[in-house]
Every structure is written in structure tokens, then in C-alpha cells.
Amino acid sequence: MGIRNERLRWQLATGLLKALHLENLAKRYSRKTVLAGFNLINGGLSIALVSFVALVTQEAFIFPSLGATAFILFYIPMAQPASPKNTLCGHLIGALMGLLSLYLFGLQEQSSAFMTGVDMPRVGAAALSLGLTGCLMVLFNVAHPPAGATALIVSLGLMPDPAQLPVLMAGVALLLAHAFAMNRLAGIPYPLWSTEAGSPAPSTSSVAQ
């Protein structure tokens, strides 16, 4: 699995360079340097795109856990946690469990923990939101680690308004759209919805040896 992921990452980077007619860079620099540069550019561009939409609309399209999602989408794009299904469902579960925890502990009208500090109700909300998120992601087979951060973002009071949920999910969808375009441009068969467990790796005949 580690070798397969490494080949996929290399195919992703070199495929995109080829599409942009910059394939000589893959010959000039080491594999690690090319992969690092690829993640630098695509990670930055994806977050810049979502942040720009947030700037124009003045809505909370951008939130911290999207950074971890962006890394997964461009570093291990064919892994199940990087699929649109896992990414969308994971963040949705995290946000919903965060909101549920706020209401259960009576914190929906309170300022965020970063403004007022952490008290016992906030401890309970944070713990419950993360526990429920992990539990449900396992039960529904939609593991996406950054969703745990989304649960904490909501339960700690940074996004406590249920009206922010559609905006939050739209931010995730924007990030996925960028990842889909970049991965497909590079020749990686990034899925429209779900990556099947045990699916064969794409051909690596074009991968530099």
C-alpha cells in the first residue's frame, strides 16, 4: 500500500507537469522536491480559492480543518478518506455532532471558548462531539480524519450557528472540485463519489523510474 501510494503521488505530480508542459522539472529535481512543490502549489491554490470566495461573499467558507483536507486530497488522492463521499460525509457528521453537543450542553448562545475560556460544559461538548463523530464515521464507513477537527471547531463555538452549515459544506465542495480537476488533469482517476477498497492502482507506465 505504501509503494502504491508513493507511485500515485508521483504520477499525480508528473502528470500535472506534463499537462502543463513542464515535465523537464521532474527530470531536473528529486522526486521528493517535485512532490513537495506539487503540494505547495495545489494546497495553496485550493485554500486561496476557498478563501477568495469567503472574501467576496463575507461568509465562512474557509475554516481550519479544510487545511488538513487539502493535504489529504493532494497527497493520497486515491485513498478512501480522500474520496468525495468520505470528505463530504465526514465533515457533515463532524459539523452536526458539534451542533448537537452545543445544544445538549446549552452552549448555543455562548461566546466561543477562545473568547471566554474552557469550562466544564465546554469540555463535555468537545468530548462528546469528537466521540460521536469518530463513532459515526466508523459505523457509516466514511472515515475522514479532518472531520474530527470540524467537530471541535463547532463545539468550541467558532461556528455555532446552524445557518452556517450549508456554507461550511459549500467550502468543502469547492475544495473537492479543485482536487477533482487537478487530479484528473494529472491522469489520476479521482472518483466522482467513492473509492472502492482494493481497487487496482492506475497504470504507472508513464511514471518516471
Q: Please indicate the percent range of residues in DSSP E strands (runs of 2 or more).
A: under 5%
The total count of strands amounts to 0
Using only C-alpha atoms, the radius of gyration works out to 19 Å
Terminal-residue CA separation: 18 Å
Low-confidence stretches: 198-209
> What characterizes the major β-sheet?
none
Order of helices and strands: HHHHHHHHH
Q: Please tell me the overall pLDDT.
A: 85
Fold blueprint:
Layout lengths: L1 H18 L4 H5 L2 H27 L7 H11 L8 H21 L8 H4 L3 H20 L6 H10 L9 H21 L24
Keywords: Membrane, Transmembrane, Transmembrane helix
Protein name: HPP family protein
Pfam families: TM_HPP
What does this protein structure show overall?
Pfam families: TM_HPP. There is one protein chain. α4 packs parallel to α9 (165-185). The protein is globular and about 55 Å long. The protein has helices at 2-19, 24-28, 31-57, 65-75, 84-104, 113-116, 120-139, 146-155, 165-185. The chain is built from nine helices and no strands. It has 209 residues and is mainly alpha-helical. It has one domain. Helix content is 66%, strand content 0%. Residues 198-209 have low confidence and may be disordered.
Summarize the structure.
Pfam families: TM_HPP. It contains nine helices and no strands.
